[in-house]
Specification:
Blueprint (H helix, E strand, L loop, with lengths): L1 H8 L4 H13 L1 H5 L28 H13 L7 H10 L7 H13 L5 H111 L2
Helix pairs in contact: 4-7, 5-6
Length: 228
């Protein structure tokens, strides 16, 4: 059943449509066998169809299967919109405009007890089935955003906060290092000054020492020479 639904709802390539059209045009017998549609009475059945954007690219087979399985699961008994759509598809290759094709398919559907109101109501049933699937998808999408996006966004903020804290710590450490470097330079300068002062003291002491010691040495030598 799912395979049949795919054949009803998946649009054929333009090349396939053209080949089917060429085939129908090359076979004049197909035109002669086209059933003459009966006039369809005007009816009023309100169906709320959401705004549909033009599809870009090919649909994802995974989501196509989900939607068509939902339709399959909720298939109504008897001849309804799905069977009518199948009749429409069987007339796809014939050379006729949309008006003729839809009326011809209805002529066949009428023999199965179908009425325009029943077909539209059943179509509305499948519209609601799809809307429920859309609601379920939106709910799942919200949960995915919460778990995969919003959760990560909170983590991003946490990491950003941690980075700012680390940067503040680095800035503080750099300031402390700069202060310590200045303290180190000051200590080195004080050491150099103290070392110079100590060396100067040492030189002054030994200068005095040498003077005094020199005098004593001189007197000792003189005493040895003259005091005999």
């Amino acid at each position: 059943m799912l395979k049949k639904l795919k054949s009803l709802f998946i649009v054929e390539d333009d090349s396939d449509k053209k080949s089917a059209s060429d085939k129908s045009q090359s076979n004049p017998e197909s035109e002669s066998k086209t059933p003459v549609p009966e006039p369809v009475p005007e009816i009023e059945v309100n169906i709320e169809i959401p705004e549909i954007k033009d599809p870009q690219g090919k649909p994802d087979p995974k989501f196509v299967d989900i939607l068509l399985k939902a339709i399959e699961k909720n298939n109504m008994d008897g001849f309804d919109y799905l069977e009518y759509k199948q009749s429409l598809q069987s007339l796809q290759g014939m050379a006729m405009d949309d008006s003729t094709r839809y009326k011809s398919a209805f002529a066949m559907a009428k023999t199965m007890g179908a009425t325009p109101a029943k077909l539209l109501k059943s179509a509305n049933h499948y519209v609601n089935v799809l809307k429920k699937e859309q609601s379920k998808f939106k709910e799942a999408l919200v949960n995915q955003r919460k778990s995969q996006i919003q959760g990560r966004e909170a983590k991003i903020k946490s990491v950003e906060t941690a980075i700012q804290e680390k940067k503040a710590q680095i800035k503080k450490l750099m300031q402390e290092i700069e202060k310590k470097e200045k303290d180190l330079d000051k200590l080195k300068e004080e050491i150099n000054k103290s070392a110079a002062k100590v060396e100067s003291t040492n030189e002054r002491f030994h200068l005095a020492f040498n003077v005094v010691m020199g005098q004593i040495a001189h007197d000792v030598e003189k005493m040895k020479e003259f005091l005999k």
